[in-house]
Design a protein that fits this description.
The protein is built from seven helices and twelve strands. By secondary structure, the protein is an alpha/beta fold. Bound molecules: fe (ii) ion (2 copies). One fe (ii) ion binds next to loops.
């Protein structure tokens, strides 16, 4: 199978990059399944039902969230009727929505997607490792699903890498989100799991992790109340990780995707024509 995971989509600029690039990526890379992290899609904070629907319309199959899951209060309600939207599975029992779901592709393959949040330098949620272990026991790769994708929403690279190795050989892809900068460590782990510490954001990189620069700089230099953060609205770079799996559901090939905006461009081998068309 051919899978694409897209990192945190930030505000209007990020949404425009989804609209512009996902339909073509889907076609050019013959993608079977696309996941995008949408926790910053609505003005940088949370997601609305309309935006989640917009993503589906552009060819995203599943939207994962993170610490900003419920910044838009309507998410507390619509997430219950939106199985294509996942919040981290280690929120306390009783939190609306779900953290993992089994999807079926157009070709009839079953894809398990899981969202989990780290605890280092973040809110103290339930144990993410125990949560993932329980889900993998319930839906083992190769038996109950044909591919498994884990979004590790965490601040610390150490926690992301520990989680990825914890799942190595048991998921097709374990990819970090939340830090909004793509890391150069994409690879296949020893037991066959595709990995990248952070997929990077889909947003305007002429910013401070997606936000207009002025207010973050002000907050670092002055300790007085200022204005609210606003997403930067210049051209966005779509950042993500492409993974091709074999018959066993494990990764055969991983390649970064960076399209548009200010970052150096990257597309998987075989899609160079597409890249030159974008440039
Ligand atoms: Fe984020
Ligand atoms: Fe986050």
């Amino acid at each position: 199978m051919r899978l694409l995971f897209i990192g945190d989509v930030i505000g209007r600029a990020g949404r425009a990059a989804i609209a512009e690039h996902v339909p073509a990526l889907r076609r050019e890379l013959a993608l079977d399944f696309v996941v995008a992290n949408g926790e910053n899609a609505a003005g940088g904070f949370g997601i609305t039902e309309a935006i989640a629907q917009e993503f589906l319309g552009h060819g995203v199959d599943c939207v994962t969230l993170g610490n900003h899951s419920f910044d838009q209060r309507e998410a507390l309600v619509f997430i219950e009727r939106a199985p294509h939207v996942l919040r981290p599975m280690n929120y306390p029992a009783g939190t609306p929505g779900r953290g993992a779901w089994l999807y079926e592709t157009a070709r009839g393959d079953r894809v398990l997607v899981m969202s989990v949040m780290g605890r280092v330098f973040m809110d103290a949620l339930d144990d993410p490792f125990a949560a993932v272990e329980k889900e993998l026991a319930a839906c083992p790769l190769g038996l109950a699903c044909d591919a498994a994708i884990l979004d590790i929403h965490a601040e610390a690279s150490s926690e992301k890498q520990a989680m990825a190795h914890f799942c190595d050989g048991r998921v097709s892809l374990a990819v970090g989100t939340h830090t909004h900068v793509p890391t150069a460590d994409w690879r296949i782990l020893p037991h066959g799991t595709g990995f990248q510490s952070d997929a990077g954001m889909t947003g305007d990189y002429d910013s401070v992790i997606g936000m207009d620069k002025e207010e973050p700089i002000r907050r670092f230099t002055r300790k007085t109340p200022g204005s609210r953060f606003e997403p930067a609205d210049g051209p966005a770079t779509l950042c993500g990780l492409f993974v091709e799996t074999g018959g066993d559901g494990l990764a055969k090939r991983v390649a970064p995707v960076r399209l548009g905006g200010g970052l150096s461009q990257a597309v998987p081998e075989g899609a160079e024509l597409f890249k030159s068309a974008v440039r």
